[in-house]
Amino acid sequence: MRRWIALAIIVTLGIAALVWSERHPVNVRVTPASLLYFIADSEWELTRLPMRATRLSDQEEIDIGNRMAAQFYMDRVNSGLTPGDNQQVQVVRDYVNRVGSKVAARAHRKLPYRFHYIPSTDFVNAFALPGGHVYIGAGLMELMDSEDELAAVLGHEIEHIDHYHCAERVQTEARLRRIPLGELAAIPIMVFEAGYSKDQELEADREGTQLAVWAGYSPQGAVRMFETFDRLYQEYVRRAQSPQEELSRVAIQTLEGYFRSHPLPSERVDQIRKLINANNWSSLDHERNLEVAYIFWTGRAQRAYAAGHYKEAAGWAKRSLEVKPDQPIALLALGNAQFAQANFSEAAAAFGQALEKTPYGDALVATYSDALAARRTPAQSLQEFEALLAKRPELKPRLAPAVELAGLTLAARGEAAAQAVVAPLKAGAGADLPPEFRGRLGWWYYRVGNFDRAAELLTGAVRERPADAVMAIQLGWALVEQHNLEGAIERFNLASNRYSYPEYGGIGQFSRRFNERRVGLAVAEWQAQQSARAVGEFAAASLAQPEWLNPQWVSALYSPGVAKTIEELKAEQKKPSGLRSRVNY
């Protein structure tokens, strides 16, 4: 009987549509895209009729959505895609919940709406599950400037639930996959990420914007969000250009999929503008700032730094700190970016502020003292480090800050004064300093030009900690200064096979230490007359880490001999390949 009723409804609707179309002709150019949309929407509407007749109850929909959400969470945990929560993730999550709950309060269906933040910049999307679960990715939020944009996106996803789009998708998938009602949670989440029919997407745009306006937001948030999508679509999809944003390949692929499954952004913008005019919303143009934007600006600073775009990284970090001062993560991002540009005073100031605002860490103390030393103002640097210890008295009893104090004292007042600082440390350690601290002290001797003492301390430390690649590289630099080029090359080569790069003693991540090893190898090979291989090593390392091309940066951190050799390598690299030195090795 139900089949006959459905057929009668379809026939009646078809006749009504024919009569209406004859009386209301529309002069629109037929394109392949419009034909595809017509076919897809027609098929989708035909499947929806039986669904409406046998619609899930609210409780059934809620139960299915809850099971899907629980499975989605476990899948992300098990695959390592859900990083451990930190303070910033929690701040964004709370903010999304607050805005989402405000918008959801205006929805027609009174469901237990819950909002989830996916802290992945590769996830440039948002989606909803049946029963009230709404998800939004960091990659999408990073494109926003206002809270009104966030409200529009969340309102759009709420309307996919509110208008039964999600519930009908469940029933459709259950029928296609022949899944029993009790096992519907097994439907892949990607089915809901993929989008809906064109009519449903446009409906969610209209109704979601209406929800946001009712909740006190400007409809301009929806306009600007779709304008951003339109710019990305025009730049990347249509013209195959690189987007202005620093998007990863995964994020770009996500966007491509989004554009394939949703109406054109320009069409969505036009619809919202017509909605604004029809409802006299033109005066609702005041947008409020996205309160958590500073978190995403800090993230951009970190990624720009990792990509070698140091000025851009410093700009994003400063912008973040202007909104939210004293953020340790943003201060570290700013310090790293300034250090890489050889702006050592600015770097030291940022690292010092971070140390005042964050829990103690050996790596951060060493990073701060590295920046102080690179300024080449020994007396002032020592004074500033002592001032920090006065502010943070809990650091004084610890070995790491004491070794940094000894190193800065060595640079400012000489070896005798430094030994006076080190003596109580040795007594406290029982006999001698642990090898990692002796190695760190050895690097301070390298900095002041006492290469023999540096090599002595580093050799002993590496003997006891053979897996420490940082000290192995530093020993290689000291051996270069002793003209033990064979030993230096051996040390640099051995360091390439050691992946346990400890945090202590520097600003670099693994890739930066790897590049330092390659430059060290290039310097030793060049001095050993192995020029062709040396130029290749240096070219690869300087391409990945451009500060090696900055003579001010190199001369502040390494010996005059190293700085001279790197200038020779740069000059050789600029020669046409046929004119380069070629020495067999």
Keywords:
elongated; Serine Threonine Protein Phosphatase 5, Tetratricopeptide repeat; three-stranded mixed sheet; 28 helices; mainly alpha; 585 residues
Could you explain the architecture of this structure?
- The structure is a single chain.
- By secondary structure, the chain is mainly alpha-helical.
- The protein contains 28 helices and three strands.
- The chain has helices spanning 2-23, 32-53, 58-78, 87-104, 138-141, 147-162, 165-177, 190-193, 198-214, 220-238, 249-261, 265-278, 293-306, 310-323, 328-340, 344-357, 362-374, 378-391, 399-413, 415-429, 435-447, 451-464, 469-481, 485-495, 510-527, 531-544, 551-557, 560-574, and strands spanning 114-118, 126-129, 133-137.
- The protein has a three-stranded mixed β-sheet with strand order 1-3-2.
- Strand 2 (126-129) and strand 3 (133-137) form a beta hairpin.
- Helix 18 runs antiparallel to helix 19 (399-413).
- It is elongated.
- The protein starts with a helix and ends in an 11-residue tail after the last helix.
Describe the SSE topology.
Elements: H1 2-23, H2 32-53, H3 58-78, H4 87-104, E1 114-118, E2 126-129, E3 133-137, H5 138-141, H6 147-162, H7 165-177, H8 190-193, H9 198-214, H10 220-238, H11 249-261, H12 265-278, H13 293-306, H14 310-323, H15 328-340, H16 344-357, H17 362-374, H18 378-391, H19 399-413, H20 415-429, H21 435-447, H22 451-464, H23 469-481, H24 485-495, H25 510-527, H26 531-544, H27 551-557, H28 560-574
Parallel strand pairs: 1-3
Antiparallel strand pairs: 2-3
Helix pairs in contact: 4-6, 6-9, 6-10, 9-12, 10-12, 13-14, 13-15, 14-15, 15-16, 16-17, 17-19, 18-19, 19-20, 19-21, 21-22, 21-23, 22-23, 23-24, 23-25, 24-25, 25-26, 25-28, 26-28
